[in-house]
Here is the input.
Amino acid sequence: MINAMPVPPSPSPGLRIEGLSRRLGERTLLADLNLEVGPGECLALLGPSGCGKTTTLRLLAGLDAASAGRILLDGDDISRLSAGDRRVAMVFQSYALYPHLSVADNLALGLRIRGMAAREREERIMAVLELLQLVELRLRRPAQLSGGQRQRVALARALLRQPRLVLLDEPMSNLDAQLREELRPELRRLLCGGSQPVVYVTHDQQEAMGMADRIAVLREGRLQQIGSARELYEKPANRFVAAFLGRPAINLLPAEGQRQLGLRPEHLVPVETGGLAARLQQREWWGHQQLLWLESARGDLRMLVAADQPLPETLEVSWRPEHELWFDSHSGERLAAS
Amino acid sequence: MKGFPMNTSLVNTLLMLPALLLLAIVFAWPLLDSAWLSTQASSVLTGLAPTANGGANWQRLLGDARFWQDAAGTLRFAVVSVGLELVLGLAMALVLHRPGRGRGWLRALALLPWALPSTVLALGWRWIYNDPYGPLNSLLKLFGAPAYGFLTTPATTWLFTVLADVWKTTPFVALLLLAGLQSIPAELEESLVLEGASPSQILRRLTLPLLRPWISLALMFRLAQALGVFELVQVLTRGGPAGSTESLALYAYLNAMRFLDFGYSATLVVATFLLLLLLTAMGWLLLRRRPLEISR
Amino acid sequence: MRSLLLLWSLAPLAWQLYTSFVTPEALIQGAGMAAGSFWTLENYRQVWLADPPIWRYLLNSAVVGAATTALTLALAVPCAYGLQRQGGRLRWAVTLTLLATAIFPTVLLFLALLQLARSLGLANNLLALSLPYAALCLPLAVLLLRAAFADLPPELEDAARLEGLNLARRLQHVLLPLLAPSLASTAILVFLFSWNEYPIALTWISRPELQTLPPAIARIAGSSLFTVPYGAFAAATVLGSLPLLLIVLIFQRSIVSGLTQGAIKG
Here is the structure.
């Protein structure tokens, strides 16, 4: 994949990561990551905690040192630049607003340090405050703001830099569920579709699907699969991706020799005859749907059906063959459809 | 130089270096110097110039009855004072920990004896113990008892140096234990209350075990300080009466400043240091146990 | 319980206060004297007009205290920052060294330090006292400040790095302003130590007009072997303790929380 010959960096726009790794002593936090993010594209890094997604973000920002690999931004190798020289903006999970400074001073600090003239500084800050509807709040301290307002200030600080790359570390995880849904389109409008690539770290698959053009799934420091949300859902590279994406989680039936069958709960349907016999154990009623917990000869199954579906104590379930996902029972890799 | 992370470990070391250098000059060098000086004769007899005298100082130390008497007296003083300070400090910490109006002021006022200079307070105690005009003797007179020589009765004077020391340093112990009390989540105590535990049961079964690390810390700290007691006895009793309250540090001081025998003074300093090291190491071994983790 | 505690802590101090305001005759004879010959300000007049006057010692102590506090913080802040950022064996070794030096009884150092001062020509130099004082305060100061640095969310500094602030700027604009309460309580503790230190001040400074308060007051009391002028001494004590009393009462919250926080996190 990586060309052994020294190739002059192509002035290809966007972000390009080559063989990026980080090791701490014996532990490998990130192993040989390769990926590209186009200009204006939003890539979500998705995975459970400790999978290496935040590590990747910190390497991109220059906050931690990589053990190996290169980071190219619009063709320039930025891996040797210090964090302050990369023109990379980052929105932190905790927002990292300076608690002793007002909103306006929070925004001004970086510009002032870089010696920007007061006039220009004011203008740029005013512009970004207006864009994010923060003008009235500009004299408040972070402690006097709501969670959503704090997030907007953190975004404002990121945009103010006119960054070449925007990084977001779980920017929504401190907000309540309703606000999260409301803010998603707003975040998309502000960040994505510009000229700079956006890398968005989250452990919430719904958020990743809602925000990102493509999703990269990481596990234990290794990239599992990268693709659109739909590709990941329909053609997961392995058992881990299949189990991590989709809620309720996929049913993994007991292995049959070399193979193991995975069936998503939403793909199971009750049938009159000819299906797999099952007994109803429990049900959760979700309003528009209900989740059934079944016991069958092939193990326990979860099944998602319409809320008004009447269900007897014993029933038979079936599925369409094209919904079967087969995995190698040892390696977990998905096998071509049989 | 601009560029990616200068080795952060190097930066950290450079940042710590000035402070560590000063510590080395003020702590390590004097100890090494004293160790060297303890093998030298350096007194009025040699014109204060150090001349090697083999182990003469150390030999003298082994046969020096005054040294052994001072060592025993200092140890007795330290053990009794620190013991009392721990008990009273715990009581004080429990009072200071209880919520109530004016708790901040109470803490500040309770802390005052610790914040004021020990020299000055020692002089104050000298006046309080004064025979026959001090307030303690006035109290005795009130009850018709004869005046007592608090600082002139060789058998008991050390007890009154202990009292002055306990009064001065108990607030410090209390403050440390207060820190410990504050680190114990209230839910732990509340769940015991729900199970019907009495206050004394809570103290024994919960508070004391969880305070262990802080008690050990206070114990080590105070023991080391008490073994080096100097100002208090120098000002309060000058080691008297009849040398009954002379501490090792005071003896070392007198050898240097009064008898101008620097070689022997250094020997006493090193001997005190070794004694201290031995006792703290013993204390540490006795108290060493895994620190308790409080899960929240 | 509370009043018992206050009685225990304050009664000896109250006695000093009382002593400083009464005549020597009143001290000996107790109550039953005419008010006119009982209460007096003579003790204060005496120490104020003595040679050198008490304010001279107050000034000396204040100068040493300020210099010590400045020097200690200047050394402790970078050290605490480095220690907090450092991991592994070095961190462990430095922390252990600090703990060991923190509990070390400083009186054992006076002899060698005196020789050092003499050979470097630092004896009878008021400001030079702040060198050993800073060293003696450093262990506690570094441990307290390290705990304070540990309490700051690391993302704050990361955010500042991304904005191109170098270490000095990060300390100046972000870290130190947030550390202000801990800096204040550390500074107060250092000042208290410096104000109260006795053995080194006693041996380094021999000229009366350069003495700090503790040896000066000890000298007032020791001027006569047989009759200690308790009234004058008590007046000196009250005057010498007043600044500390004010500091402790004004900053009680930050002293207590600074010390307890440091102990909890350290």
Summary: The interface with chain A takes residues 153, 155-156, 158-166, 169, 173-174, 177-178 of chain C (CB under 8 Å).
